[in-house]
Specification:
- There is one protein chain.
- This protein has 129 residues and is mostly helical.
- The protein is 56% helix and 5% strand.
- The chain contains 5 helices and 2 strands.
- It has helices spanning 13-22, 29-46, 55-71, 77-90, 107-119; strands at 3-5, 8-10.
- Helix 3 (55-71) packs antiparallel against helix 4.
Length: 129
């Protein structure tokens, strides 16, 4: 999770890597929403081939991502970048833990979402892993 500094909560090295890989390209909130919904549809379809996909965790992540998108226009530039990177990470299935082939495929996504929530002061939306 984030680490405390003199200037408040700072991203962890893992989150900084996600920011670098997924947060540099700005994505319109409407596109983010479409990407989240499309990714969850793929998750639901993939469960037909792999019953071990944690579809419930993926649904929780989707719901939190949609809440983040609702907040997006009220967020400052750093928060928008964190949200953008977090959602782009979630909608990439081939991330730290492959989403569609591993029973823990969404655990890394939930960790990134939770850190984003911590960084933007929305801890009340945290996902239990």
């Amino acid at each position: 999770m984030g680490k405390d500094s003199l200037f408040g909560n700072e991203p962890s090295s893992k989150f900084l890597k996600v920011l670098k890989e997924h947060g540099e390209v700005y994505t319109n909130p409407k596109i983010l929403k479409q990407n989240v919904e499309n990714h969850f549809r793929k998750v639901q379809q993939a469960t037909a081939q792999n019953e071990f996909i944690n579809v419930n965790l993926a649904k929780e992540i989707q719901d939190v991502c949609l809440a983040l998108i609702s907040y997006y226009d009220n967020a400052n530039n750093n928060e928008q970048r964190y949200i953008n990177a977090t959602i782009n990470y979630f909608t990439t299935s081939d991330d730290e833990e492959e989403d569609f082939f591993s029973p823990i495929g969404f655990d890394d996504d939930a960790e990134i979402v939770n850190e984003c929530l911590e960084l933007i002061g929305k801890e009340n939306l945290r996902i239990d892993i």
